[in-house]
Amino acid sequence: MTNRGGLWLAFAATAWLVGACASTPPPTAQMAVANAAVTHAMNAGAQEAAPGDMRTARDKLERAKQAMANKENGLALNLAQQAQLDAQLAEAKAHADKARKAADAVQDGNSVLREEMNRKAKN
Q1: Of 1, 12, 53, 109, which is the most exposed, with the fewest CB atoms less than 10 Å away?
Q2: Left if phi > 0, otherwise alpha if psi is -120 to 50, otherwise beta: which for 79?
Q3: In whole angstroms, what is the distance from residue 66 CA to residue 108 CA?
Q4: What are phi and psi of 25, to 5 degrees?
Q5: What pLDDT digit, counting tens, does each position of 44-53 carry?
Q6: What does the pLDDT read at residue 1?
Q7: What's the whole-number average pLDDT of the chain?
Q8: In whole angstroms, what is the distance from residue 83 CA to residue 74 CA?
Q9: Domain boundary assignment for the chain
């Protein structure tokens, strides 16, 4: 009798797990958002400014696609969200890098102007 009870419990647990996995719909919208975030970051120059973050974002996006193909929708959603965040971080680093370079260029220009003004003041 205990063997049947254990078998019934195992069956019920398996049925619950299958039902829980099936209850999460495919994260198609989040996949599209994550894909767009990766593309946007690439276009912003994140590959050069933050190659590690971009590699992580692309890897997680690929893993999300694989999970979705395997009908592991919860995992796919989680990975797609992480990929989006990693891509956004990489893009922010790219913008910060560009801003830093622009600030350096302005400072260099100011130095040149100061030197020119000092030279003219001495004459």
Answers
A1: 1
A2: alpha
A3: 49
A4: -70, 160
A5: 999 999 999 9
A6: 47
A7: 87
A8: 14
A9: 26-122
d(CA 5, CA 119): 96
Tokens at 30, concatenated? 């989040």
- pTM across the whole model: 0.71
Q: DSSP of 11-32, one letter per residue?
A: HHHHHHHHHHHHHSPP-HHHHH
Residue 41 in tokens: 């970051």
Mean pLDDT of 47-63: 97
For 70, list phi and psi in degrees, rounded to 5: -85, 5
Q: Measured in whole angstroms, how far is the alpha carbon of residue 89 from the centre of its chain?
A: 7
Query: Per-residue pLDDT averaged across 64-73, rounded?
Result: 97
